[in-house]
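1st attempt posting a full record on here, be nice pls
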Amino acid sequence: MTEDHHAGPAAAAPMVAVRDVHRTFGSGERAVHALRGVSFEAGRGRLTALKGRSGSGKTTLLNLVGGLDAPTGGTVTVDGTDLAGLDEAGLLALRRDRIGFVFQSFGLIPVLTAAENVGVPMRMRGIPAAQREERARTLLALVGLAEHAAQRPGELSGGQQQRVAVARALANEPALIIADEPTGQLDSETGRSIMQLLRAVVRSEGVTALVATHDPALIELADEVVELRDGRIHRPEPAEELARG
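the predicted structure (as tokens):
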């Protein structure tokens, strides 16, 4: 990578810091309290798994960290920036330049080749075509798809499409990758290979990854684990930790 995301006085600070965050949808008796006083940190250059059952608040929390939604209360800081201090243009720049997203549904554009899909975020930044093409080739090689650059999503397997999505997430050299159930549509073996790829990318590219998953086999590959239950962080009691050991 050409940019050192670890440099500067903020290097020791966590990549993501969530402090007493609440997110409520609706009001009155019909209000849904999706997050209830959540606080956690995601360390720089680490893969943090966010685990929890469906409805536990994982996607809501990822949307807040990614600047796609705003908390009802509390603060969300990403790479030293308090998201509450950003206007819509600032949030757009944050998502474009400093965060890469990987979705469960892959989110690739069907009419574009793998290389062109990887180049989309760079096109949005106005990166020259030759530079886009060179970086796309480099990233597709990184995720093991160098020979599939000219193929369209429909010509690729689910696992290959998700690898393209990972490459696309890295296009603008982000500080943070957010992945919401990135293996949800894949079989267990392919899902594990995608999680291993994300871990390898964290190591090789120096980025931070925050990955939501409910698969215990994938959680084992994480550096850190944050568990959500009913909108709250669950911290195991000593007896639970002993049982796991």
